[in-house]
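Aim 2 progress update. The chain analyzed this quarter is reproduced below.
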Amino acid sequence: MSELRFDAIVVGGGIVGCTAAYFLAREGRKVAVVERDTLACGTSSKSFAWINGTSKTADENYHRLNARGLAAYCELAVEYGEDALGLNPSGTLSVVQTSDTANYAAAREQARQLAAFGYPAAWVDVHALRRMEPHLNFPDDAEALFAMADHCLDAPKFVQFMAAQVRALGGTVFEGCAAHTLEASDEGQVTGLMTDNGSLKSHSVIVAAGPGTAEVLSTLTGYDGFATRFPLHQVPGLLVSTPSLSPHRRIRHVIYSSISPEIHMLPDFNGGLKIGSDETDGMVTAESSPDHLHNVASILLERVKEHLPEFPGQACLDECTMTLGIRPYPKDGHSLAGPLPGATGLYVIATHSGITLAPALGALMAELITTGRTPEMLKPFTLDRIEGF
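Predicted structure tokens:
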């Protein structure tokens, strides 16, 4: 295979890359996805996979982008069905205590902002909480923000589904195919990509490489400055997935609890729980040893037991799966999506909350590439807002 021609090439076979490729293919574009390993092998398979607009209220543009991501999942579910997508319309309970003055005030303000934005949510008292989550141990002064529209996702299943749709629409998905060099004219117009499978010709290349975005850009362009100066942090997070807890469903919703000990968890697709904590994320690094990760995982499991008295705690550690995910986090906290200034036809998508945002950013990027016009919703997130670009 020496040369193939495509309307667009996407570098990165995670949820953001495959979803962008899907929306391009739906627009009638012949698309290639180039993944150096296997689909969804990186951050997509190591994510908490909570789809929401609930937690993004500080900036209205960013909230609306996240809400658009959630709405896009709902539209896909109408078309294909939740099971095919790996989608669970679980809703979210963000639990606080009235006696925790600071967190309670913050949660109430979050509820006020969501109402102002028109995002579906309601406030529930402890009696409703105990009916909604009968296995959980709630103190008498517990209350919660209930975001009934939120979802959780089997992200690897969704990625595989998107890739299958790309193929069905005439696209190509290359796995085990590293991208080596960006090809361009003397005027800076992208003309293609040199890969393990030869030269792939296209005037549009999207880099959607998650936390490896800076290194991929550096490799493709030969400019070392991307590796050190691209405005993207790499943030580690530890997740623990338990075995099935059948015959019980210990929780029914995504739970974000600020009640000590702080924890977040959701009903995993194997019948168990997926568990994380902002506090324990601060205990790990990308270089943490397996022994250290086991110790932190034990802490997480014991935290769950304090909220779920019937849960076995660290006694089930050996049956659990631990994943240390490295999450991309733009330096100003908001998505980077759009053309890379100075290289016509080269585009970048790099974002935290990639699970929520994948269909929104994918559809917006497809619109940008097919029409040549930047959609209004995308304008606050283009790379030219960053000093140095």
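The chain has a mean pLDDT of 96. The first strand starts at residue 3 and ends at 5. These observations will guide the mutagenesis experiments scheduled for the next reporting period.
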